[in-house]
Recover the amino acids of this structure.
């Protein structure tokens, strides 16, 4: 058997409850980050723009996204507590499509604690 074939045979399985907890935690952090976008409303000139129906719709959209992210976070975290701890899943292929290395690492190793420093993820500007 070749070295490459041997590597494919050794599959690393991830605990499904731990994975759901990590995804729920990631969604929670995204909800908090989106909620902070409301600070934009306080910027000079923006408050006056809120008289425009389109701007009000944008702010309401931020609320909607925040509520959906928070709801999905709670949903996944609740599912994780309700499922057997021995359920496992091979996440290697799914993790391959994640472009942010720190997020990918958290999904590959869901039992590792999340870094506490804010802004530790990569940011790619266009």
């Amino acid at each position: 058997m070749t070295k490459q074939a041997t590597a494919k045979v050794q599959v690393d399985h991830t605990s499904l409850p731990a994975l759901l907890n990590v995804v729920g935690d990631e969604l929670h952090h995204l909800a908090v980050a989106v909620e902070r976008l409301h600070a934009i409303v306080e910027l000079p000139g923006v408050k006056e723009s809120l008289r425009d129906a389109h701007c009000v719709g944008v702010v309401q959209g931020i609320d909607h996204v925040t509520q959906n992210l928070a709801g999905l976070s709670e949903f996944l975290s609740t599912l994780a507590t309700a499922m057997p701890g021995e359920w496992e899943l091979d996440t290697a292929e799914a993790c391959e499509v994640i472009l942010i290395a720190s997020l990918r690492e958290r999904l590959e190793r869901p039992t590792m604690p999340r870094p506490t420093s804010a802004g530790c993820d990569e940011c790619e500007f266009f």
About this structure: The chain has six helices and two strands. The chain has one domain: 13-108. Residues 13-108 form one domain. The longest strand covers residues 13-15.
